[in-house]
Amino acid sequence: MTDLIRAMQAYVAVCDLNGFAPAARRLGLAPSVVTRLINALEQELGVRLLNRTTRSVSLTDAGSRFLERARRILADVDEARLSAQQEQGTPKGRLSVSAPLLFGQMHVAAVVSRFLNLYPETQVELSLSDRHVNLVEEAIDVAVRIGPLADSSLIARRIGETRQMLVASPEYLRDHGAPSSPAELHDHSLIAFHVGEHRTDWRFGDGQRFEATKHARFLTNSGEAAIGHALQGGGIAAVFSYQAEPAIRDGRLVEVLSEFAPPAVAIHALFTTRRLLSPKVRAFLDLLDECTPAWSGAAQ
User: Fold this and answer.
1) What is the pLDDT of residues 22-81, one digit of tens each?
2) For 98, what's the count of Cα atoms within 13 Å in the CB-facing half-sphere?
3) Most buried among 80, 146, 157, 276, using CB within 10 Å?
4) What's the CA gap between 56 and 65, in Å, rounded?
5) Structure pTM?
6) Of 152, 166, 190, 192, nearest to 262 (Cα)?
7) Which residues of 43-73 are buried (b: 16+ CB within 10 A; e: fewer)?
8) Which domains can be identified in the chain, with CATH numbers?
């Protein structure tokens, strides 16, 4: 296997530098050794990879197809080697993390504190915002996102789940009654929570939708503000389960229309590449995985 890897390294170098002599110089080998490695590779594969003349080399069709595969194989080998070397590496340096405002306050901040205590040679910048940041443009190492993900080149690791739920205070329900179906929401004061300019309908497990932003008395981009108004008896709010769970646990909020609740949505950690993750990013992702039960329990 080692000889095969050396042969692929020689082959990629010959292709990149368009010649055996420059490839040999790059690899620190004699040209005859590079020639022997390429010949052995072609014999192993049973196909000609290169057309050779006294002045140049060119790829055959098979050689062109194999070149891309060889690049991927060598990249995987490098990743495995560096990953093994980093297993004993200590996380160091600055880590930039982004998370939704309330979820970050309730859960991610605690993970950051634990991370800093475990790895004293690190610094963390935690940015809390309900807008979707651009990881590349804003130099974010890890971003936590809730809900469906847009197609992108980012790598996503699932770290838990939550679900949307409708809640109201016991006082509000005493004075106005509890709806028995989504259609009865028209008769209630509604509190709608949205992110940025994105308006969403309230969705239910049976496929029904309700235009909450159209009928809401209170519309806010803050989940904390929505819950605060619900706690004051302001109406029925749609929030994520992790946001309302503490108030539900101590009786200050009550879930309504639970039989119509939609399915849970995923919580993901996003990062830019799965290759050559630094020890600090890998360690932080592992801590997020360990803490999954703390925030996924509220989704039940």
Assistant:
1) 999 888 899 999 999 999 999 999 999 999 887 788 999 999 999 988 988 888 887 777
2) 19
3) 146
4) 19
5) 0.62
6) 166
7) eeeeeebbeeeeeebeeeeebeebbeebeee
8) 2-86 (1.10.10.10), 93-160+265-299 (3.40.190.10), 164-260 (3.40.190.10)
